[in-house]
Design a protein that fits this description.
It comes from Sinorhizobium glycinis. This protein has 286 residues and is an alpha+beta fold. The protein folds into three domains: 127 residues, Nuclear Transport Factor 2, Chain: A, CATH 3.10.450; 79 residues, Signal recognition particle alu RNA binding heterodimer, srp9/1, CATH 3.30.720.120; 61 residues, 2,3-Dihydroxybiphenyl 1,2-Dioxygenase, domain 1. Helix content is 21%, strand content 41%. The relative contact order is 0.10.
């Protein structure tokens, strides 16, 4: 293939991808799907792991979760083509307002596989992805942008012992501040989403153990749900002092602190965010 032919192919492919992106911005389902080849394969950010782009229902349902037009643009769009197949890579930026008022601004990686048909270049494969943090949290790194840098010489976090609770709470910042007042929590780390408001990760240390928090991200399949069916236990030396501090901070008593049938002090509290805590300590011998 000559250089001129490659340039012509690249121009046609770029025009097709840009028109596809414009259809995404306008939430035009038919126009989006018109750029797909038959049996187009999609590896999107949303579940499942593998999907087909041949149906309109799912895309229309997703478009309906947004208010108004979408922000959608590419950076570093790079195209390589042969006679009948091509691929293109880019960083994509998606922005807009969800129906619940949540503001979204997200950079992610996008790859197109294209095939030439009698109707022009069509998208045969679409792949979207984000990296995840390698600190043991396995949280999606949705706070990155093209200018983000990684310090590969930074020391890695040591492994943490035991099982660590990771709570999806309505307001992670307020929750962390309350736990500092109620349970003496020390904040070790926090990472914000690109909106600068929601926390995608907050690491607390309470009573020597780790507790992780994050805000809900319904646009990525992690909505908030009322907590139920579990209790966070604090096994401490002095149950009374821990209890009094938590109650003074605003925790609600749901089970009085008293000597339990097995011989330890035990009681339960509910924090303002609906999480139930158990406080336990051995009865000190006189």
């Amino acid at each position: 293939m000559s250089t001129a032919e490659r340039s012509a192919n690249a121009a046609e492919i770029r025009a097709a991808i840009e028109d596809w992106a414009e259809a995404m911005r306008e939430k035009d389902t038919g126009r989006v799907l018109s750029h797909g080849a038959e049996d187009c394969l999609v590896f999107s950010l949303a579940p499942p792991l593998k999907a087909s782009d041949t149906g309109a229902e799912g895309l229309e349902q997703w478009f309906a979760t947004w208010k108004g037009a979408l922000g959608y643009r590419f950076q570093d769009l790079d195209i390589s083509s042969g006679d009948d197949v091509a691929f293109a890579t880019a960083l994509a930026h998606l922005s807009g307002e969800k129906q619940d008022g949540a503001k979204v601004s997200l950079w992610y990686r996008q790859t197109f596989g294209l095939t030439r048909t009698d109707k022009g270049w069509k998208i045969a494969h679409l792949h979207e992805s984000v990296p995840f943090y390698m600190d043991g949290s396995f949280k999606a790194a949705i706070d990155l942008d093209p200018a983000s840098q990684v310090d590969w010489n930074a020391p890695s976090h040591p492994p943490m012992a035991g099982v660590i609770a990771y709570l999806n709470v309505e307001d992670a910042d307020a929750t962390a501040k309350f736990y500092a007042r109620a349970f003496g929590a020390k904040e070790e780390d926090r990472k914000y989403a690109e909106d600068g408001k929601r926390l995608i990760h907050c690491h607390l240390t309470i009573n020597g153990g780790a507790l992780m928090l994050n805000d809900p991200f319904p646009e990525f399949g992690f909505p908030w749900k009322p907590p139920e069916g579990f209790v966070l236990h604090l096994i401490v030396d002095d149950a009374h002092s821990w209890w009094e501090r938590a109650v003074a901070a605003g925790a609600e008593v749901t089970m009085p602190l008293e000597i339990a049938f097995w011989g330890d002090y035990y009681g339960q509290l509910r924090d303002p965010f609906g999480i139930t805590w158990g406080i336990v300590s051995p009865v000190k011998k006189g």
